Amino acid sequence: MAIGKIAPPVSISVLIALGAILLSLHLMSSATQNPSVLGDMYAWLLLINVLGSVLLLGLVVANVHSLVRQLKKREAGSHLTARMVFLFVLLSLAPASIVFYYSMQFLHQSIDSWFDVEIDHAMDDALELSRAAFDQRMRSLLKETESMTERLEHLPDSVAAIELDALRTDLAASEVTLISEQERIIASSSFNPRSIIPSLPDDSILLRLRQGKSYVGLDPIRNQGMQIRVVVTIDSEFPRYLQALYPVPVRLDSLVQSVESAYAHYKEMSYLRSALKMSFSLTLSLVLLLSLLGAVWVAFVSIRRLVAPIRDLVQGTRAVAAGNYEQRLPVTSRDELGFLVESFNAMTQRLAQARDEAYRSQLEVENQRAYLETLLGNLTSGVLSFDADHRLRTANQAADKILNVELAAYRGAPLSALSAEQHHLVHFVEMLQEKLEQAQTMWQEAITLLGPNGRQELLCRGTPLLTIVGERSGTVMVFDDMTDLIRAQRNAAWGQVAQRLAHEIKNPLTPIQLSAERLKHKLSKNLNPADAQMLERATQTIVHQVEAMKTMVNAFSDYARPPKMQLEEVDINRLIEDVLRLYSTQGTIRFHVSLDSAVPGIEADPVRMRQVLHNLIKNAQEAVEARSPGEIFISTRCILENRSYYVEIRIQDNGPGIEPEQVERVFEPYVTDKAKGTGLGLAIVKKIIEEHGGIIWVDPDYRDGAGFVIRLPERAGHRESNDASIESKDRRQTA
Amino acid sequence: MNLLRWLFISFSWLFTGPGIAAEYGFQVKSAELVREQNEYVLNADIDYRFSERAIEGLKHGVPLTLVVAVKVYRNRALIWDERVVSVMLRYRIRFHALAKVYQVLNDSSGVQRNFVSLPDAVDALGRIRGMSIIKAGRINSDDQYEVSIKADLDIEALPLPLRPVAYVMPQWYLGSSWYTWPLEK
Fold this sequence. Notes:
The structure holds 2 protein chains of 2 kinds.
Chain A: H1 8-33, H2 35-38, H3 42-72, H4 78-114, H5 117-153, H6 157-171, E1 175-180, E2 185-190, H7 203-210, E3 215-221, E4 225-234, E5 240-247, H8 250-271, H9 273-321, H10 336-378, E6 382-387, E7 392-395, H11 397-403, H12 415-421, H13 426-438, E8 443-451, E9 454-466, E10 472-481, H14 483-523, H15 529-560, E11 568-570, H16 572-584, E12 590-594, E13 602-604, H17 606-623, E14 631-641, E15 644-653, H18 681-691, E16 695-698, E17 707-713, H19 719-734
Parallel strand pairs in A: 12-14
Antiparallel strand pairs in A: 1-2, 1-5, 3-4, 4-5, 6-7, 6-10, 8-9, 9-10, 11-13, 14-15, 15-17, 16-17
Helix pairs in contact in A: 1-3, 1-9, 3-4, 3-9, 4-9, 5-6, 5-8, 8-9, 9-10, 12-13, 14-15, 17-18
Chain B: H1 2-16, E1 25-36, E2 39-49, H2 52-59, E3 64-74, E4 82-96, E5 101-106, E6 112-115, H3 118-126, E7 127-135, E8 145-153, H4 162-168, E9 179-182
Antiparallel strand pairs in B: 1-2, 2-7, 3-4, 3-8, 4-5, 5-6, 8-9
C-alpha cells in the first residue's frame, strides 16, 4: 500500500498538512470564543477541520486495512505493529476520552450556569422597570397631545400647517406631523431643520387609529437612542392624524439603552444556549477527533519505522534459516536496533564465509576422493579398506576382478556376509578376519583361492589405519593376483629344464641310433634267419623309438628355444590364404574365410606366424574330422582398443569344443585331449603370439565348438598412412 | 461563499430531505429596473416567508440579514453574457425588546424603520423602491440586457454559535430562485 510506504518527503508534507489542520482547529476554537475577529472564516475553518478529520480518518483506515492484510499474510513484524498500535490507541484513547467527557460536562454545566432563573427574572424585571420608567411619561405625553388636538380640529390644512410650529413648541416635541386619512403628510414641524422627511407611522398604527384608539410607543432611532411616538386622531369631518415625536431625557435614554442591549444580548444567548453548547461541543469533539486521529496516524507511521528494522531482522533470519547467507540489512539508525542489525550483518557475513570455506574444503575432499578413486580404479592391485568394526568401506575395480565379486554390494556389510554368499572366498575371509582382529602392525600373507577364475595365488599386504590421536580406525589391504607371475616363472623354469634336457637327451640319441643300425648291419648276416629277424625287429624298434624320441626332443627344444625372430612386414591376410591353400585340397572340410582388406600389415616373423596358423588350423581340422560337414571359420579384422590398433584373427570350428575346466589350462604344455600329439601345440602358439606382443584366448562367447581369438598389435609406424582406411572401417563396424 | 453554501445545502439535504420546503422560502413577486433621470433604479416586491425557526430566533433577539443580489448582464451573441454590474443590497430585521417593535434597516441607504407588527415589518422588508443599481451611461441602447435578482438569508451574519446548526438545518436555508427579466430601456 502506498500509504504504508510513505517516504520522508511525503511524510513531511503530510505532517505540514496536519499542522495546517491543527492551526485551523486553533483558529476555529478562537472563533468560537471570540466571534468578532474570525467569525467570517468560521465556515471555512469548520470545513477544513471536517475535511482534515476525514483525511486523517482515511489515513488511519488505510493503515488499519494494510495492517489487517499484513496480519492475514502473517508478514514479519505485523503482530508487533498491531500490538503496539493497539496499546498506543488504548493508552491515548482512555485519558483523552476521560478528559473529553469531563470537559463536556464542565462546558455544559458552565453554559447552563450562565442562565439562571433568577437572572432571567432580573432581566425581565429590568426591562419592565425601564418600560415603567417610560409609561408614566408616555401617558402624560399622550394626554397632552390629545388635548392639543382641539387646536387643530377645525382648522383647514393650510392654517393647521402654520399652527404646527406653535403646537410643537407648546408640546416640547422634537417633531410634529399632520397626516391625512390617505396617509399623506399635510404638514410637519421639526426641531431639527435637517430632518426633511418626517418619519411616518406604520400601517398597523394607522389601523389602530382608524379603530378610534390613540397610539403611544417607544421608537428607537438608529444610533440616536429613543424617542416617544404619539399618534392621535383629530376629530373632525375629515379625520386627520397628528403625530408627535418626543425626545427622551439623555440620562434615562442611556440607562434604558444599556438595559435594552444587555437584555437583548441575554435573551439571544439564552435562545442560543443549546446552539452554543453544540458549537462548543463540536469544536471540542473536532479537537479530540483530530488529535486522536492524528496521534493514531503518527503512531502508525512511527511504529512502522520502529518496527522496520525488526521486520527486516525477522525476514533476514528467515532467509538465513533458508540458507541465504548473502542477506544484508540496511542500517537505518544508530541505536540499539541499529547495533542489532549490524551484528546480524556481521553474523551472516561470518556464516557465509564459513559456508564458503566448508564448501571449498568439501570440494577439495571430493577432488581428493575422486583422485584416489581414479588411482585405485587404475591400480592392477586389489585394494580393500575396512573400518574399525571390520566392515568393508572401499574396494577398487581390480579387487572386484581378482576376487570375481561385485564388492560394491557389500560396502558397509560385515565380512561374514561376504563369506556367506561367496563360498569361494571363505578361506580368504577367514584369513582376513583373523588379521583384522589380531594384526597390530603391517602384515603380509599369501593365500590360494579356488574360484570361478580357477586357482589363484594372492599376495595380501595389510596396514592398520590410525587416527590422529593414534586410535585404530580401520585397515587397508592391498593384494595382487600372483597366478600369472608364478605361472610365468614356472614356464621359464620349464624352458630352461627342457632346453637342458633336450640337449642332454638328444646327444646320446644319434650314437644309439647309429649303434643300432651298425649292430643290425654287422650281425644280420651272421645270424640265422630267426635271430636275424628278431634283431631286425629289435633294431627297428630302437631306431623308431629313437626317432620318436628325437621328434619329441626337437619339439621340446622348439618350445624351450629362446626367441630368435626374423621380423618383417607381413600381410596377415595373404599369409592366411597361403596356409589355407595347403588345406583346401584335403578332405571334406569346408572353410569359411572372411578377411578384412583394411587389416594393416604387421611386423612379424612369417615362419612362426605360419606355424601358429598351422597349429590352430590343424587342431581345428582334427576336431571336426568326425563332423559332417566339418566347418572352420577364419576371419580377420582391425580393432581400436585403448587408442591402439590391433589385428584380430578368429579361428572357430564346429567340433566338440573345449571342456570348461580345460579352458584355463589349454595353453599349458602337455595339456591335450587328443590321443596323439605332443601336447605342446597350443603352448607353442601362445608362446609365439606373446613373443610378438600379442595375446590369445579361448573365445568364451563362441559355443558351437572351439574358438580362438588372436590379437596382434599393429606394426609400429603404420598408423599414419592407414589412418583414414582404419577409421572408415571403424565406422563401418560401429554401424 | 456560494460553493460553501452549496456544499452545506447538499450536506443538510442528505439528512433532512427536500420534503418541507414549501412552508417557507422566499419568492421574488415582481421586479423592474426603471430609468429615473440618469440612473436605473430597482423596484421589487419580494415575498419573504420565514421559517418558524427563523421567526423564533428573531423574536429572541437574533437579527436576520437578507441579501438581495441584483445582476445586470449584457447579452452577447457568440460568447457568454457580460456581467455589467452586480449589486448586493443588504437588509436587516431585528426585534427591539424594550420598544416591542421590529426594526428594518436598509444597510445601503442607512434608513431604519420601526414596525409594531411583524407582518408589516416583513412587508416593508420585501418592498424595494427606487434603489439605485446602475448609471444610465453604462447601458448601451443598442445592446440587449438582462437583469437577475434573488434574495437570501445570510447565514454568515447569524451569531456564530447558531451557524453550525444553521449549516445543517434546511429551515435556515432561506432563499429565492433567480428572477430574470429583460431590461427595458
